[in-house]
Description:
UDP-n-acetylglucosamine1-carboxyvinyl-transferase, Chain, four-stranded mixed beta sheet, 15 helices, disordered C terminus, UDP_GlcNAc_COvinyl_MurA, transferase, MurA_subfamily
Amino acid sequence: MEDRPITLSPSLSNTHSSSEEDKTVLEIWGGASLHGHVGISGAKNSALVIMAGALLCSQDCLIRNVPALADVTRMAEILSALGVKLERQGNSLLVNASHIAQSKAPYELVSQLRASFFVIGPLLARLGVARIPLPGGCAIGARPVDLHVRGLQAMGADVQIDHGIVNAYLSGRNKRLQGAKIYLDYPSVGATETLMMAATLAEGETIIENAAQEPEVADLANFCRAMGAKIRGAGTNTITILGVPSLHTTDYAIVPDRVEAGTFLVAGAITHSEISLSPVVPDHLTAVIAKLQAIGAQIIEDAPNRLRIVPGHRYVATDIETLPYPGFPTDMQAPLMALLTLSDGDSVITETVFENRFGHVAELTRMGADIRVKGTHAIVRGVPMLSGAPVVATDLRASASLVLAGLAAQGKTTVQGLHHLDRGYENLTAKLQKLGANLQRTQLGADGDSPLVLPDPTIVTTVTKPGVTKPA
Ligand code: EPU
């Protein structure tokens, strides 16, 4: 792979608080009917962890179907800071971690992307040392990493936290991590992924019990298997990994994004429009489809990888409780709430996964929704209509919820805080415009009154840096 400088799209290459980004808003004129077909991008949460997983291999890894998202750019920057070479070609990403120059990830980058903490497992397995800053809390909760740390300790790593940095290393006679039986107190997606990656190169067998069963965990396992890892049971609550000395080159396509697909199903429902989507894995959407059907929409499987939503005339309230997979996904709680604000009756939404994931409630209320929050419950009383308003997104899925509400509201909704949306939805504006929605991204001029229409931000990632042979 040829060494080239890092080139990132200006809108995605710096922190999210620049005044330019603050001025970019999404204007939505609600009420338009949608029609046609939308293409679903690769799964963000697979892409992020599979990029980390590429650290396990000292040869080229070609990852296909990688969405162009701000979070993917961040993860590329982190790998690049470790000395890994990356090159983006369309929606494929070539990663070469033959030389890892650094065992320490920079705080400025880790603090912007919690998923970057997941590099701790592969780094420790490859180098015998990893120093990763604690990522800290975020808009949706405290998000500790104790389960990752305890699992690595069970595999023989010394782990100490000093000055906000998790220092993990192998000491004594251990040249490799040691297989272990690990029970997770909670089926954490990230901890399951960290430990599964670490175990691929460990000595002996690791069994992870009460493992997360999310499709992205299974996708990571399939990627690791494609590199020669020996993993059984991913996608169930017990994963068994037999460590191997090294992994080899691979060419792997990640699964479609089930949360993006679910968001478009809600877009069809909330605008009373029939739309189809592909590629999707319908089995990944079972809980979401069941709730949409309970509310009054029909979901038809036109082909094994294609779904069509046939909207209802009226919708009825339904209760939702977020749970680890295969339960109802926390990432779809905010989008579904938008639809329930317009469904007859009272719905109780219970968020059990993250402690602070109701940031969208106050904004939906500004649009006329009737929602009360009591602890982990939101009680949504359906109203006949929402009215467009200026609103601010507080996190990624909250931003999707506000866009969905804006598509159905009367009049104009202006969504601020688009850096959240750009973390997880590839070309959302363009995809919705193609379906017939009336919306545009604009940047207000310096005087605040001369809007400039903008396309969705795109990533131009050629991220490569010369590798350095010596681990730090
Ligand atoms: N938790 C702990 N200790 C740990 C790890 C997790 O207490 O060591 C707690 C968390 O604080 C949280 C719960 O366990 O309350 C679940 O967290 P989990 O580790 O399962 O989530 P994650 O790995 O941090 C991933 C996704 C999230 C998604 C959750 C749940 C990625 C990069 N992120 O996060 O995606 O909501 O699983 O499915 O894979 C999103 O895409 O918007 C998003 C937030």
